[in-house]
Amino acid sequence: MTVVDRDTDDAASWGNAGYLTPGFAVPLPEPAALRAGLKVLSPASPVQVSGIPDTNLLRFATRFLPRCSHRRWDHALRAISPINRIALQAHEELDATGTAAAVVHRDPILVGFRDSADLKAKLTELRHVVASGMPVRSDVLTASETRSLEPTLSAEVSCGMLLHDQRSIDPPMFLRLLRKTVLDEGGRILAGQDVVALNVSGRGVAARSADGAVTQADIAVLACGAWLSPLARQFGVRQPVQAGRGYSFRMPPEANMPTRPTYLPTQRVVCTPLADGATRVSGIMEFARPNHPQNPDRFTTIAAAADPMLSTVDWTLRTEEWCGSRPCTADGLPLVGASHSERVFVHGGHGMWGMTQGPATAKLLARQIATGNPPSELAALNPLR
Ligand SMILES: Cc1cc2nc3c(=O)[nH]c(=O)nc-3n(C[C@H](O)[C@H](O)[C@H](O)COP(=O)(O)OP(=O)(O)OC[C@H]3O[C@@H](n4cnc5c(N)ncnc54)[C@H](O)[C@@H]3O)c2cc1C
C-alpha cells in the first residue's frame, strides 16, 4: 500500500476534537443547523460563511437546505446507524495494531448546559439515535453533580449529562501512531505529493503529482478530505464535498481547563484533554473554500462562547491556533464505495464525524475491494448516489 499525501498539517484528522462518540454522530443537515445558519451574519454565530461563495458552495447549499427537516434527518440517521454501531469496535481493532496510546479517555463524555431546554433537546436527539438502532447510555445530572465531576465549570451550568461508552483521543498522536503502523506493516507514505490527475488504463491507475512524479497502483482510493470533489468528479461522483471549516487551539495544563472530555453543545465548543495534560478547544462551522485564509477572530469567538461556562480561564495562554476543513456532504452521509471506474474507489465526506466513523467505513471498503461485494452497511453511502 502507498499513501500519497500533500500535507497532513492542514488535514482535519490532525486538528479535530478527537471525540470518538457514535452516540453523538448524527447527520449535519437538521433544523437546528438551519436555525444556526440563519445567524451567519452575526460574528458571534458558530456557523459562518467566508469569502465569495463559489459554485461548489452554491451546489452544496441548494442540496443541503431542503434536507434540514426532521423527517430527512431521521432518514439519514437510520442510514448511518449501522456504521455508528461498529465504529468503536473498528477503533479497538486499530488499537491492537498500535494506536491504543492515543486514547486519552474512556470515561463518559460530560455535557454541560446553561439551559434545561437545551438538555431536553439533546435528550430528544438521543432518543432518535436509540430508535435508529444505536444503543446509547446516558445520565442526566443536576448542576452540582455536573460541577462536582468537573469543578472547572462555572455556576452558569444549570444541568448536565454523561454519555457513556464513548472515548476521546489525542488526534496528532493518533496520526503519528497510524503512520507508524502503516510503515511497520510494509506500506509506503509519499509525503509532499500534490496529486493533480489520475489516469486509469488497463495496467492500473497512475497518480500524477504537481511536481511531475507519477505513482502507479492497481487501484486507487480517493481519500482527500475537503479536496475530494475535483479529483472524484471525473469518476462520476456528483455529490459536492464542501469544506466546513473548524478552528481549534491548545490551552496549557495551568489554564484551569476541564480535565475530562467536556462538550458545551449550545455554545458549540468542545474541550478535549490531550495526552500531555493540555486541552484542545475547538468549534465553529465556517463554509468557505478549504484554502481560504483563516480568520483570527474565530478563535476569540470560541473563547467568548465558552468563557461564561468555565470558572476562570486566561484565554491569552492559547497556542497552536489551527483551522481545517471538515469534508461535508449535503445529505450528511459519507461517500464510500466504488466509482464509475473499477480501479478507483472513494472514501470521504464524513463531515463532523470522520474520526469516529472512518476506521469502520475504511474496513468495510477494504472488504468491498477485496471481495468485489459491497457490504450492506455501505449501501446508503454509495458515492454515485
Ligand atoms: C475542528 C474540528 C473538530 C472535529 N472534531 C471531530 C470529533 O471530535 N470527532 C470526529 O469523529 N470527527 C471530528 N471532526 C471531523 C474529522 O476531523 C474529519 O471528518 C476527518 O478528519 C476527515 O478525514 P479525511 O481523511 O477525510 O480528511 P483529512 O483529514 O482532511 O485528510 C485529507 C488529506 O488528503 C490530502 N489531500 C487532499 N487533496 C490532495 C491531493 N490532491 N493530493 C495529495 N493529498 C491530498 C490532504 O493534504 C490531507 O492530508 C472534526 C473536524 C474539525 C475541523
UniProtKB/TrEMBL annotation:
EC number: 1.4.99.-
All copies of domain FAD dependent oxidoreductase, residue ranges: 2-367
Cellular component annotations (GO), alphabetically ordered: cytoplasm
Gene3D superfamilies in UniProt: D-Amino Acid Oxidase, subunit A, domain 2, FAD/NAD(P)-binding domain
UniProt entry tagged with the keyword Lipid biosynthesis: no
Source species, domain of life: Bacteria
Family matches, as Pfam families: DAO (PF01266)
MF terms (GO), sorted A to Z: oxidoreductase activity
Sorted UniProt keywords: Oxidoreductase
Record-linked PANTHER family: GLYCINE OXIDASE, SARCOSINE DEHYDROGENASE-RELATED
Name assigned to this protein: D-amino-acid dehydrogenase
